[in-house]
Amino acid sequence: MKIIVTSLFVQDQDKALAFYSEKLGFVKKEDVPVGEYRWITLVSPDDPNGTELLLEPNAHPAAKEYQQKISAEGIPATMFGVPDIHKEYKRLIDEGVKFTMEPTKMGDVTIAVFDDTCGNLIQIVEK
């Protein structure tokens, strides 16, 4: 068994697609109409057949409440690995991404947290 899709609740699918593809560099894999929303997945350009990130609308009240509460508590919705966190931090700052935590060493890893503009905090980590 392996993880093939992981969901991330977003406030606006089009805005999220633009952010995750244009700012973060993920590649759109699926974009299929499903009722009033779409099944939109992205993958890492380094692993096009790897785990897909589903940009799932937070239209359900429970999803919206979950997203709002974890964000308000400063809890990242998910984590992405990067080979050089300081280089990625600078690249994202140059792209206009707003960080809530700059790169910080925590034991054997260094982490940073940014706002995805779609209701989530996202953590990046260098192991």
Structure description:
By secondary structure, the chain is α/β, with parallel strands linked by helices. The chain has a single domain, classed as 2,3-Dihydroxybiphenyl 1,2-Dioxygenase, domain 1, CATH 3.10.180.10. Helix content is 26%, strand content 42%. It has 3 helices and 8 strands; from the N terminus they run βαβββαβαβββ. A 4-stranded mixed β-sheet has the order 1-4-3-2. A hairpin with a 2-residue loop joins strand 2 and strand 3. The two termini are 24 Å apart.
The total of helices stands at 3
Separation, N- and C-terminal Cα atoms = 24 Å
CATH architecture: Roll
Reading side by side through the largest sheet, how are the strands ordered? 1-4-3-2
Number of strands: 8
Roughly how many Å is the radius of gyration? 14 Å
* Helix residue percentage: 25-40%
In round numbers, the mean pLDDT is 97
CATH class membership: Alpha Beta
| Residue share in β-strands | 35-45%
Summarize the structure.
The chain is built from 3 helices and 8 strands. With about 130 residues, the protein is of the alpha/beta class. The chain has a single domain, classed as 2,3-Dihydroxybiphenyl 1,2-Dioxygenase, domain 1.
